[in-house]
Amino acid sequence: MKALLGSRSLVVTALLLLAGTIIPFMIWGEALEAAFSVQGARAWMADFGQGAGVAGMGLLVADILLPIPSTLVISALGLTYGPLIGGLYGAAGSALAGLIAYGLSRWLGRPLALRLAGEAGLREGETFFAAGGAWLVACSRCLPILPEAVACLAGLNRMPFRTFLLAVLCGSLPMGFAFAAIGALGQDDPAWALLLSVVVPALLWLGARRWMRR
Questions:
Q1: 179 with 71: CB under 8 angstroms?
Q2: Rounded Cα–Cα distance for residues 139 and 196 (Å)
Q3: pLDDT for residue 11 is more than 70
Q4: Is the N or the C terminus of the chain less surrounded, counting Cβ atoms within 10 Å?
Q5: ∠ CA 189-193-196 to the nearest 5 degrees?
Q6: First CA to last CA across the chain, in angstroms?
Q7: How far is CA 48 from the centre of its chain?
């Protein structure tokens, strides 16, 4: 973390990315959360018939630009399809959103990042994301606002693709199945789902990292 915070220019880049996610949340967050409650998201997806699951994944991908309440959408997928199929749709949508944010930032945002952070700042960021950024990627998937900002930072700082892919899957799979189960069971308190969505990704990434080293 010291490497990430050691560069003022890199911190500015991170703050700009966070602002890009927080400002839409301040403007549209309340309205979107009301529209895409569990029942609201389920009703919206029902309009797509057999493509409801893909529509739900589309909502999760839209979270890159809009403050879509992703955990509520995944709960709606669980309510619609059950914890297994709904969890698969939810995990796939979350992982796809992270991969798109990573890819766009890595291949299109690099020139802007160089202007903001400079070569030295990006080198420090690359060091951080190569060494320990995967923990941040894996454990942030269930949080509001942060996941796609973290994915963008990973792309800007060229985290190795295989590392990012494994990390985003370690975070998306537990979150997808946990919140799909919340929806399928009709529960309102997601505290245990949030706990699983942070602890299990950390454990999965620990195993994935050992596998990569071998």
A1: yes
A2: 10
A3: no
A4: C
A5: 150
A6: 25
A7: 24
Per-domain residue ranges of the chain: 2-213
The span from the CA of 66 to the CA of 40, in Å, is 17
| pLDDT, tens digit, 9 for 90 and up, residues 141-192 | 888 778 888 888 888 888 889 999 999 999 999 999 999 999 988 766 667 7
- Residues in the chain, how many? 214
Token duo for residue 104: 């766009």
User: Cα separation of 200 and 180, whole Å?
Assistant: 16
Q: Which of 175, 209, 212, 211 is CA-nearest to residue 195?
A: 175
Give the integer Cα–Cα distance in Å for 177 and 88.
7
Alpha-carbon distance of 84 to 90, in angstroms, equals 10
List own/partner pairs for 3-8 with CB under 8 A and 24 or more apart. 3/124, 3/125, 3/127, 3/128, 3/131, 4/124, 4/125, 4/128, 6/124, 7/117, 7/120, 7/121, 7/124, 7/125, 8/121
